[in-house]
Recover the amino acids of this structure.
């Protein structure tokens, strides 16, 4: 029973973590909360739905194409709504993001519809028994593995690659980085591309896991993921991972034992954590520490 | 007060008394009332966010606290409505203290998420504490105010809320122009420097939350007795988000800006109501466009007759 | 310096606001209604309001489909006494504040004859005092018991009350030998009402409640925590007090966890989407409902057929309720004319039940629709079928 609840919590948590990475990436460089990220993730789920419909049961191509399409959407959002505000106070950018979030979710409703749609089968489901009363299936394992692999890749990208170096430099000090020859426009585009494509991957995985895609799914998931990012220490990649898992596990146990206050307990834990560690669990300076 | 100013005020007062007499449509009266309610609400958020720079995403909780306090006191204990609203203001102020106190250590986005969490928890308490709040069913049939035995009609509500709004606006301007307002802005612009100058940061941050909460409590108390039905659905995170958007749309830190933001965001969806399915999309597009072309907000610096320095507005939130 | 200027700007802005009020006053007094309403032939304006955006948008859309279909059929047959029905649709965003705005808009529109509306009970309750005051009859699908307590004279509810459905399903569960029931419900007035009825009915019949668990409509997507706990509670059946999307998710996650308990529910689950989303996971689910597409009733068959032609899907509970509401209104207007008070009087004391696709409808003294029976429906071979012993 406890084991099953733990598995449930880890599953939910790894989903939060994947979406949280998008918030953290953007925050690291741009220092503002991209409220539209939840809706980018929702669009990722819709892209995945259409791709799965046309490509059938081929997980990897669907995943990669979804990530590319969602990444492009993220870059477009940045170009339209944030780029003109590069020099504005970041709360202004936050408001623009709020507007963009309304636009994206309403566009999905108008273009695709307001119903909840099932995800075409990408993989067949197999159950595995863990002990006497706990079950896990291959989709859950896949969600978890993909989440971990993507996070490791992201860590490598940020810490080792040329663009990663530029991103880290920009997150430290945009002006100095600019003087050193870092092209800020490129860095921002790459950041949005990578962050959004992770949101797209989350959209596919969540779509497969719950087998349900709908135009308002970005709202609740975005809220939780954003909480997870802050809980872990926004800007920190391991923080997002850890914050997501913690939130998922807490929420799951709370949901079973005190279901009326499910979300309340998740938020209470978050507030308590913040009171004792005001910078989040991983109070790391953006992208400075390696895992 | 110069003669010219006096004429201005008299003219304005006459206008405010006369205009509602010529408005025939109840719908228009209702919208004006809603604008005034939101006007008071955003003035509170303006003090917390615009003046002091505390990023609060839980303002709807103060609104709800005011509504529920007055509704419950009047309905359960049979208190007069006027007293109920006064106590609603106090209760929301106390909630402001309770919320401000533990969040003192948090800055910027961490504060935002903590206030968001408080707002969500507050909403869940409204839903789940049935014996007190009547849960998700809400409280219907809330007493309407009456005067000399006559139950309020829309026009009387409008006069009352406009009066309350003018009081709130005057209070907000007074605060903004006083030592208190300057202290708030000092904290907003540079917390460390303010502390270095000997400002007791914690005290003023809590004070900002208390004052902001009281404004929202006033709006909430009035709202409960106006619509006569309240339920947890009316005080959600989305409402906090809308209030936030009003502040920035109008221009944070300008006092009058957020009020203009409220006017726009209350009336715009109604004016667009013929578009039914499309109107929220248009509202979103307009929000983005305003931010791109007037990042300082509609009433933020750059408008000559306001003479508020652009620099002052632009500074909000830049410092952590 | 700053002080003076801000004060003057305050005055300016107040003046601007006042001016805005004037403009609004000007356009509000007649601007919301189509100018052609007095033209030859004439139109009959019926207000319609429910969420068309936000997380309940889909249910609102279905309601609108049902209402539009009924209006189209009536208009194609020549309208009501020569006048064509014109639906004035508005979106309340599932927000009671917006519902109050729209109620005021409708109340100020003198051409409106009646209103169909509000999906959420809280939205209906926020608008109800306004409709009462404006003497504008309104037919609502909300089920909250608060309506009955408040007795709004102009508000009528066409859906099945929680009390009736809840006790009907409880009795059904008992008949099938389930005496220890786990209740999973939506934490709002709809789910709460059902939970309360089912809990008390079970105890009345001598059974027990294994536990109750709640979720948030449109937000909770993960039920594994709840379901794992349900599994451990020793329950022999699950009652879901909620809607089809959440129902389908619960079903699939039960399947994932290997929980094979019988599931019961009410008309909120009756929707094609439950099967589309739930697939094999919802096979065998038992639901109380108002109608079944395969029934041999010609009126129903015609409705299902034209709905499928128009919207390429099978109508569920909410589409059917609005379809009935619109037809009921048409019948009343045909009988008593467009006078709002006469319409109210007719609805309050219907001389004969209205035969709709959801069954015979007549309102009681609280203005709740009284239904004699419900249908027992079951998902079999991924289709809704009539339950047979």
């Amino acid at each position: 029973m406890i084991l099953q609840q733990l598995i449930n919590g880890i599953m939910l948590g790894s989903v939060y973590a994947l979406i949280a990475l998008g918030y953290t990436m953007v925050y690291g460089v741009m220092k503002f909360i991209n409220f539209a990220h939840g809706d980018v993730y929702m669009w990722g789920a819709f892209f995945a739905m259409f791709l799965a419909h046309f490509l059938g049961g081929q997980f990897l191509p669907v995943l990669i194409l979804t990530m590319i399409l969602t990444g492009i959407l993220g870059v477009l959002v940045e170009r339209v709504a944030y780029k003109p505000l590069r020099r504005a106070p970041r709360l202004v950018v936050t408001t623009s993001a709020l507007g963009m979030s309304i636009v994206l979710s309403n566009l999905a409703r108008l273009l695709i519809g307001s119903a909840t749609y099932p995800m075409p089968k990408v993989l067949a489901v197999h159950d595995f028994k863990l002990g006497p009363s706990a079950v896990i299936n291959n989709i859950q394992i896949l969600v978890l593995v993909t989440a971990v692999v993507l996070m490791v890749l992201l860590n490598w990208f940020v810490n080792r690659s040329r663009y990663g170096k530029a991103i880290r430099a920009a997150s430290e000090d945009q002006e100095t980085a600019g003087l050193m020859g870092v092209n800020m426009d490129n860095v921002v585009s790459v950041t949005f591309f990578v962050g959004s494509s992770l949101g797209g991957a989350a959209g596919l995985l969540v779509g497969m896991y719950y087998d349900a895609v709908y135009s308002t799914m970005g709202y609740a998931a975005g809220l939780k993921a954003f909480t997870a990012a802050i809980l872990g220490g926004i800007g920190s990649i391991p923080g997002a991972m850890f914050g997501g898992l913690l939130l998922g596990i807490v929420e799951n146990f709370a949901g079973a034992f005190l279901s009326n206050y499910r979300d309340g307990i998740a938020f209470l834990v978050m507030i308590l954590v913040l009171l004792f560690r005001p910078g989040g669990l991983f109070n790391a300076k953006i992208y400075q520490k390696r895992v | 007060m110069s003669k010219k100013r006096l004429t201005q005020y008299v003219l304005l007062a006459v206008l405010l008394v006369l205009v509602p007499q010529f408005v025939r449509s109840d719908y228009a009266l209702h919208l004006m009332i809603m604008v005034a309610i939101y006007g008071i609400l955003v003035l509170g958020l303006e003090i917390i966010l615009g003046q002091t720079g505390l990023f609060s995403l839980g303002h709807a909780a103060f609104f709800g606290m005011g509504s529920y306090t007055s509704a419950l006191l009047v309905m359960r204990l049979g208190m007069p409505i006027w007293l109920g609203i006064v106590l609603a203001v106090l209760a929301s102020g106390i909630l402001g203290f309770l919320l401000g106190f533990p969040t003192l250590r948090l800055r910027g986005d961490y504060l935002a998420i903590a206030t968001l969490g408080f707002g969500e928890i507050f909403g869940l308490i409204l839903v789940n504490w049935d014996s007190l709040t009547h849960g998700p069913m809400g409280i219907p049939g809330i007493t309407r105010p009456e005067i000399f035995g006559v139950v309020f009609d829309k026009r009387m509500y409008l006069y009352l809320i406009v009066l309350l709004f003018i009081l709130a606006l005057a209070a907000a301007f007074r605060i903004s122009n006083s030592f208190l307002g300057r202290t708030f802005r000092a904290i907003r612009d540079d917390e460390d420097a303010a502390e270095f100058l000997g400002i007791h940061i914690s005290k003023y941050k809590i004070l900002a939350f208390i004052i902001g909460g009281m404004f929202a409590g006033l709006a909430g108390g009035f709202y409960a007795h106006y619509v006569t039905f309240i339920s947890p659905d009316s005080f959600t995170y989305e409402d906090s988000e809308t209030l936030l958007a009003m502040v920035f749309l109008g221009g944070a830190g300008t006092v009058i800006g957020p009020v203009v933001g409220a006017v726009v965001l209350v009336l715009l969806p109604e004016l667009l109501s013929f578009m039914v399915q499309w109107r929220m999309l248009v509202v979103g597009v307009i929000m983005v466009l305003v931010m791109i072309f007037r990042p300082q907000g509609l009433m933020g610096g750059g408008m000559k007759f306001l003479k508020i320095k652009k620099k002052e507005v632009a500074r909000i939130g830049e410092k952590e | 310096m700053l002080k003076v200027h801000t004060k003057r700007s305050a005055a300016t802005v107040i003046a601007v606001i006042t001016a805005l009020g004037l403009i609004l006053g000007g356009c509000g007094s007649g601007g919301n209604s189509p100018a052609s309403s007095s033209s030859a032939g004439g139109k009959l304006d019926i207000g319609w309001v429910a969420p068309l955006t936000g997380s309940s948008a889909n249910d609102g859309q279905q309601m609108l489909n049902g209402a539009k279909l009924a209006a189209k059929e009536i208009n194609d047959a020549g309208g009501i006494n020569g006048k064509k029905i014109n639906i004035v649709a508005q979106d309340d965003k599932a927000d009671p504040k917006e519902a109050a705005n729209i109620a005021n808009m409708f109340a100020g529109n003198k051409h409106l004859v009646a209103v169909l509306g509000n999906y959420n009970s809280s939205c209906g309750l926020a608008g109800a005092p306004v409709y009462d005051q404006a003497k504008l009859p309104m037919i609502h699908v909300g089920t909250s018991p608060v309506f009955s307590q408040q007795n709004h004279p102009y508000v009528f509810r066409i859906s099945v009350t929680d009390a009736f459905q809840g006790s009907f399903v409880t009795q059904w569960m008992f008949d099938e030998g389930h005496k220890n029931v786990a209740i999973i419900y939506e934490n709002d007035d709809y789910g709460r009402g059902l939970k309360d009825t089912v809990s008390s009915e079970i105890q009345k019949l001598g059974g027990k409640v294994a536990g109750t668990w709640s979720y948030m409509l449109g937000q909770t997507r993960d039920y594994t925590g709840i379901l794992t706990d349900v599994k451990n509670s020793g329950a022999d059946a699950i009652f879901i007090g909620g809607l089809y999307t959440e129902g389908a998710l619960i079903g699939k996650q039960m399947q994932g966890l290997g929980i094979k308990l019988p599931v019961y529910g009410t008309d909120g689950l009756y929707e094609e989407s439950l099967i589309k989303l739930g697939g094999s996971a919802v096979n065998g689910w038992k639901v109380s409902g108002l109608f079944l597409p395969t029934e041999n009733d010609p009126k129903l068959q015609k409705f299902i057929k034209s709905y499928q032609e128009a919207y390429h899907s099978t109508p569920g509970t909410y589409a059917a309720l609005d379809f009935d509401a619109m037809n009921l209104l048409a019948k009343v207007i045909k009988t008593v004319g467009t006078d709002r008070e006469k319409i109210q009087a007719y609805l309050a004391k219907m001389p004969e039940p209205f035969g709709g696709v959801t069954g015979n409808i007549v309102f009681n003294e609280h203005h709740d629709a009284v239904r004699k029976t419900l249908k027992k429906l079951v998902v079999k071979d991924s289709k809704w079928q009539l339950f047979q012993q």
